Amino acid sequence: MGRVTVEHNAAVVHEPDLPGNQGRLALAMLAVEHKHPVGRDEIADELWPDQLPRSWETALRAVISKVRSCLAGAGLTPDLIANAFGCYQLRLDSCWPDPGWLDLEAASESLHTAETQLARGDAAAAAVSATLTCLICSRPFLRGTYSPWTLRQRDRIAAMHVEARECLADAHASAGEFALSARAAESALMLDPYRDTLYQRLIRSRALSGDRMAAASVFARYRDLMIRELGVQPTAETVAAFRESVIEPVQGT
Q: 109, 148, 158, 166: least surrounded by Cβ within 10 Å?
């Protein structure tokens, strides 16, 4: 996420050191998919999406060779990128003395940890873990590249970011920090403005923070969006959240 960077001990390979956008994309693809081999044809289709060069296998070998040379400049062994049976694989487990670390994997693992911590009732720890995922996913992925594989990864990262923001909103609510919960829910809605559960969390958090008018405004915004953009009525769960948080407390006064 952010600029593609390789760090090994005190050595750093910066994005401009890589062999152009093709080297950058190839390295990123091998890094994200490092748990399994990637076919040469799959990589080539991403590097040359419009039309493969006549000698694309030779061209691909040249790109991978240049990437290997860049990694060797950071003291990494050339066999970090293995080649067998028409596939390439970035072998992070070959890094010494510790296995390689990838920020995108750290984001995924932190989200899983956050959801587990929240389920166990440790809201404070869940908020920390979810925040780490949000920080990583907030950075751009391969800016300026629009290959099919890159777009699929961006969709996956965006979905993970929304889940982390929602988990953060739920964690703050569980800790009684309803203003922070509402802020996290609003941030998540900027990423996914059609997510019903986020509106439910936002309505409840606004009301529990003492601002039932704001909670009512959130429901009105949601209802108008559903009818105008999707042609559907609000879900029963969101209506229930509105009634429980806004209507019933007013009727009970």
A: 148
Cα 237 to Cα 241: distance, rounded to the nearest angstrom: 6
Model pLDDT for residues 79-95, shown as the tens digit of each residue: 788 888 899 999 887 66
Tell me how far apart the alpha carbons of residues 75 and 11 are, in angstroms, rounded to a whole number. Answer: 7
Q: Determine, yes or no, domain membership for 1.
A: no
For residue 201, the enclosing domain spans: 193-253
The answer to whether position 217 is within a domain reads yes
DSSP per residue over 193-248, as a string? TT-HHHHHHHHHHHHHTT-HHHHHHHHHHHHHHIIIII--PPPHHHHHHHIIIIIH
CATH number of 57's domain: 1.10.10.10
Radius of gyration of the chain (CA): 23
3-state secondary structure of 89: strand
Could you tell me the pTM of the whole model? Answer: 0.88
Confidence (pLDDT) at 72: 86
Please check whether residue 90 lies inside any domain of the structure: yes
